[in-house]
Amino acid sequence: MDLSVIIPAYNEEDNIKLMYSELYNALSPLGVDYEIIFINDGSTDATEDRLEELRPKKDVKVFHLNKNCGQTAAIMAGIDCAQGDVLIFIDSDLQNDPKDIPALLEKLAEGYDVCSGWRKDRKDDFATRTLPSKIANSLISKISGLHLHDYGCTLKAYRREVLEQVRLYGEMHRFIPIYAAMNGASVTEIPVNHRERQFGESKYGLNRIFKVILDLIVIKFLLKFSQKPIYLFGGCGVVFIVFSFLFFLYMLYLKFFEATSFISTPMPTLAAFSFMTGVIAILMGLVAEILNRTYFESQGKVTYQIRKEKKV
Q1: What is the pTM of this model?
Q2: Does any domain span residue 198?
Q3: How many CB atoms lie within 10 A of CB 139?
């Protein structure tokens, strides 16, 4: 299989058939062996019925999740079910344009491992969707070191090998290019068409801002400390222990030079609390190191990847 197109769908009953029609028109002229994979993410409308009507088509595969698990889980299910050498993700709401798929494939043919879509002229409400997205994209780029204009655009193309070591949890689907880059993948970006939503309702609100912030903390940890957690926990522990000695010295200064009783100042409490916190942090780092080694060695994982020859 040359190409797998993965479409997560949640309550998109009016868009499913139009989505398939546009995909067919975009993919059939390419002359490649492709499959279209719809992942029904526990829809509560007639999405399942619309998908079952497409099942007899030879280029369509349909999978139904038992409940609504979120876009990240739906994409992960699509990755696990796909057989193509190239995987493309696209939303089912028709705001992404399937006609952009050939341009993504052209970039992969140039030697890139990942090509991300950039909704340069976005057709969403500026205050509630576009502006928060711009701020989030800028923050993500700065923290991750991978500079993309639009992490939230689902339309992306990946070589299969860069996703083989990727496992997604929570709301991490928007960070897949970062995971790929962590594994040595070359990432690029191209502007893609973005259309106004015609049917259905958006599944995203302003509450996703807080999810992005928390996810960024996880990403930062994985980027810098996933293989050496003692550097984070141990570093924090050393800082706390240093502060405990400073509090202790200041406590002695107050006692012998300012005639201030130990019970008249919070310094003894701060010194003891800081010292115990530091010791606990270092011990947590040691436990994390043991868990890290257990994770890799029990599953036969390695901390490196050998580059594979790219198929054009």
Answers
A1: 0.79
A2: yes
A3: 14
Are residues 118 and 187 located together in one domain of the fold? yes
Residue at 305 is within a domain: no
pLDDT of 249-301, one tens digit each? 999 999 888 888 888 889 999 999 999 999 999 999 999 999 988 877 887 77
Q: Do residues 26 and 117 share a domain?
A: yes
Q: What is the Cβ-side half-sphere exposure of residue 282, based on CA atoms within 13 angstroms?
A: 10
| Whether the Cβ atoms of residue 54 and residue 60 lie closer than 8 Å to each other | yes
Three-class DSSP category at 26: helix
pLDDT tens digits, 225-250: 888 899 999 999 999 999 999 999 99
Same-domain status, 237 and 169 = no
**Do 185 and 271 sit in the same domain of this protein?**
no
112 to 20, 90, 120, 158: CA distances (angstroms): 27, 19, 21, 9
> Residue 285's pLDDT is what?
94
Which residue range forms the structural domain that includes residue 281?
229-298
Q: What does each C-alpha distance from 268 to 47, 187, 249 come to in angstroms?
A: 64, 53, 10
Among the three residues 177, 210, 225, which one is the final residue of a domain in this structure? 225
Which region, left, alpha or beta, applies to residue 125 given φ > 0 means left and ψ of -120 to 50 means alpha?
Answer: beta
Q: What is the pLDDT of residues 139-186, one digit of tens each?
A: 888 888 888 999 889 999 999 988 887 777 777 888 889 888 887 889
